[in-house]
Amino acid sequence: MDERYDGTSRRRLLQAGALGAGAVLASGTLSTGGAAAAATQATQASKASGGRIDTEHPRFTVAVVPDTQYQFDLDRGDPAPLTASFEYLIDQRSAENIVFTAHLGDVVENAQASEFAQADPVFKILDRARMPYSVLAGNHDIDASKDDTRGDSAYLQTFPPQRFRRMATYGGSTPNGYNSYHVFRAAGRQWLLLAMDWRPSDASLAWARDVIAKHPKLPVILTTHELVNADHGRPVAYFTDHGNRVWDQLVNGNDQIFLTLNGHFWPPGRVVRQNAAGHDVHLHLTNYQDRYYGGSGMIRLYHFDLARNTIDIETIAPWLLGQDPAKRNALAEGDLELTDDTNRFSIPIDFTERFASFDPVPVRPARPAAQLVIPGTAAYWRFDGPVTDKVVDHSGKGNHLTRVQLAGDGPQASTEYHPDQPGHASWLFSGGKNPARGGYLRTADGAPLNALTFTNGYTIEAFVKLADDDADHAWEGLLSRMGTGADAGKTGSDPSEPVVNLAFSGGRQLQWAVYPLDRNDTFTNWGHEQVAGQWFHLAVVNDGRHSTLYVDSSPLLRNPATTSNGLATADKPWLLGANHYANVIEQSFAGHIGELRIVTRALKPSQFLNA
Questions:
Q1: Cα–Cα distance for residue pair 446/573, rounded to 1 Å
Q2: CA–CA separation, 8 vs 16, rounded Å?
Q3: How many other CB atoms are there within 10 angstroms of residue 15's CB atom?
């Protein structure tokens, strides 16, 4: 594996669903109390793990600290709020997987050396904890009448490039020292963050373009002091004149920049603007200096979740949260955390698609059918060729399928396939009911598969994409065994039902309903609602006692605990792409089928077709 990741591991990362050890928000969504409600548990988890972060986990956090200038304002400030924020980030580092902290400028109010002398020890809290962070100059930190060719300043003496060189994330600075970039690892890949000065010069913007060009595969977060503004009552942000300059010279032509963060103005706001490549750039303004106690050290937490393709944003004031509730004043109570739509929200981003123009996920190579014929394979059908009247069983057992045409259009060959599918194609079935139409496939009379009873367990798995929501999926069959319960000598439940049926309910819930060998009644496993128009891998695994449904290698809930063994048979054909009742075809399947494999033993998820 190279320094980033290979295509397979990255895809696995994007598909991962569950959060790892130490994660507080295990549901993948923000809890009602946000960081406040989970503070004690998170702190304990973080300390127990020694403050470590997981750079491979699909969920991570970037902390954002906007204008802190009123906390360092000659003799009128108070470092306690920012101190509490930094200590909070250190405490929560492991629990929230905080990989980086970005300050958005205006560290102090009057650009005085005495003010920076107050701020410096607070930032050293992060230095001592080895927490990577960036700082940039706001207009209150320097001579605001000049661009970044202004020369020396108290800001630059406090935050020179040398201060950041001890950080593994630090990449470099402009010759004038006022602009820098960091590269941090999170979710199994590298990310680049630019920290751009108050109204950077043309030369510095050119430097930023060069930094991006030298990191052509890295997604970029731009932090700067001024870019967009917003008005009270109008949270949709708009560009300032300088913001348009930065957009034109840096953002618009660099598709790698997908998120920008700036302070300077208030109230907070956000807007989405398409760049020259036609892709969305999310531009966020965050600043709380106008609120109680100069903003109370309020911070933004950007929770990236590459499994859910979402960034969850929350805004909290750790200093206020840490106060005794019985002693908090009324203004503090109102600013513990901000939950309006401009301060607590989520933005959906399909990270794979958004980054595809500069760092596409490599297509997983097709795998030959012979590679998937593992010990115990009873049948293996692939739909990676033209529609024919016969589908070969690659298992070598002779369980070939014959196409049966109903009224209407039959299946069509398609170039679509699940990204983890061994064969790179599928068939699109245009099934329906009342009457049944389209087409399906069946094994021959006397095929070996028809007589198998699977007393040692079984695994049935397939790659499927249901047709869009206009299709009626109610009780359509994906795989069924001809013959009813009555044909197999069963009298319980509804003996007119098929002995084996893998189907979908009216709510697109996966259903595995069978007559086991050792039971007189049907046993049913249920899945959850599947999204139409979206590929998924499904599997039914029986270990000789219990059956478990899996979707995308994840075990589902509604699996019977009652022991059952084998599959009843009436020695009749199997049907692929159709359902039947009382041996009458009721409905054929509507959607794509990529391939389907039946194995005469229980497989682990690591042995599935998508492994």
A1: 8
A2: 12
A3: 17
